[in-house]
Specification:
By secondary structure, the chain is an alpha+beta fold. It has helices at about 20-35, 60-70, 70-80, 155-160; strands at about 5-10, 40-45, 50-60, 85-90, 105-115, 135-140, 145-150, 170-175. The chain has one domain: Alpha-Beta Plaits (2-Layer Sandwich). The protein is about 25% helix and about 35% strand. A hairpin with a 2-residue loop joins strand 2 (about 40-45) and strand 3. It starts with a strand and ends in a 6-residue tail after the last strand.
Length: about 180
């Protein structure tokens, strides 16, 4: 079974996703990664903080991803990226990415839980949320923390937006980035 890459990145001011150099890096890196891994790369921003960028993609396994990150061609593309962003976290929850929808992804929510508590109670405190078109939950082997990722289309996504920035909800609300250019 494949794993899901969930990378949390933070842009360094004054850079944004629309900055030419940042857009070029993400376009090149995303295209190369998708070709190498055979999985699409999806980018999102945090609705409450546009400097936070999230990359969600798939890999055969975490080791395959780490091998790719260390290869020379990837290092060339990613060279100098530290001037524009920092990597806050890189997780590989065991969520089968082959089931992740490819179309009509407008908003994604991410909820963290303790691995020993299971995913059973996720979302119970957020009964006002609409039903997701897809959801997957899994444990990250390195951190032993659980993550539930839910995908919403445009109609449901609009209903989710009011929850953005609600620290009490325990849910991060992410909006899909469709283009990097101004």
């Amino acid at each position: 079974m494949s794993v899901t890459e969930f990378a949390t990145l933070q842009l360094i001011s004054p850079h944004t996703l629309q900055s030419d150099i940042v857009a070029d890096i993400f376009e090149k890196a995303g295209t190369r990664q998708a070709a190498y891994s055979s999985y699409p790369v999806h980018l999102f921003t945090n609705v409450a903080d546009a400097s936070m960028v999230y990359l969600i993609s798939g890999w055969k396994d975490a080791e395959d991803h780490m091998q790719y990150m260390g290869n020379e061609e990837n290092q060339k593309v990613m060279g100098g990226i530290v001037e524009y962003l920092t990597i806050k976290s890189l997780l590989h929850p065991v969520i089968d990415f082959t089931t992740f929808p490819e179309h009509d992804i407008w908003v994604v929510t991410v909820e963290k839980y303790a691995a020993d508590s299971g995913a059973g109670g996720l979302g119970e405190n957020n009964t006002n949320l609409p039903s997701a078109k897809w959801a997957g939950a899994g444990i990250d082997a390195e951190t032993n923390e659980g993550y539930k990722i839910s995908v919403y289309g445009q109609e449901e996504g609009i209903a989710i937006l009011p929850f953005a920035g609600d620290e009490g909800s325990g849910i991060s609300v992410l909006r899909r980035v469709n283009t990097f250019r101004k």
